[in-house]
What we know:
Layout: H1 3-28, H2 32-58, H3 64-86, H4 100-122, H5 131-148, E1 153-154, E2 163-164, H6 165-193
Antiparallel strand pairs: 1-2
Helix pairs in contact: 1-2, 1-3, 2-3, 3-4, 3-5, 4-6, 5-6
Amino acid sequence: MAPFIKKIPNWLTYLRLVLIPVFVVLMIDPSRTMVSVAAWVFIGAAITDYVDGFVARRFAAVSDFGKLLDPLADKILVMAGLVMLVSQRSDINGTPWVPGWMVVIVLSREIWVTGLRGVAASRGLIVPAGGAGKIKSGFQMVAIVLLLMHDLPIRAFGLPFPWSCHIVGINFLLISLVFSLWGAFEYTWSILVANQK
């Protein structure tokens, strides 16, 4: 196997990190066009997360560096998305596109898990993302994209009334919170409890 293939997952993670400030700049004072472009930038960054994991597993290119950097890049991407969304206000009633309390829970969980990873690293342990964490990330990524398109309708299951992307996005974010807290419990147990035995 060519040595450069093993570097592809980390390169994709670097690309994700580069796309984050681009997304933030687009969302600082967004017009309809800027939000649309920001949504595509976010989708591109989210796709790199899937592709780098696939390549790493397919070509046995998993590294300890990637295990630490990849989830960190995911956290920064999600945090950037949610913070920029909560800073936007509805033109109709002035409410934020995302309730602040949901963002507080997500950020608190991410800071807690990052701290746990630091504890694990100090003990020479590398803890890869668990199943709940991966599901949580998937729901969060989709939720953020839907919330970026918040005022567009979704017609599903032949229902006579349209659901807005905002309603579906908020519910996806709520589902992600359940998996988020479950994942935080798994990390806490594996690092602070199981490894003490």
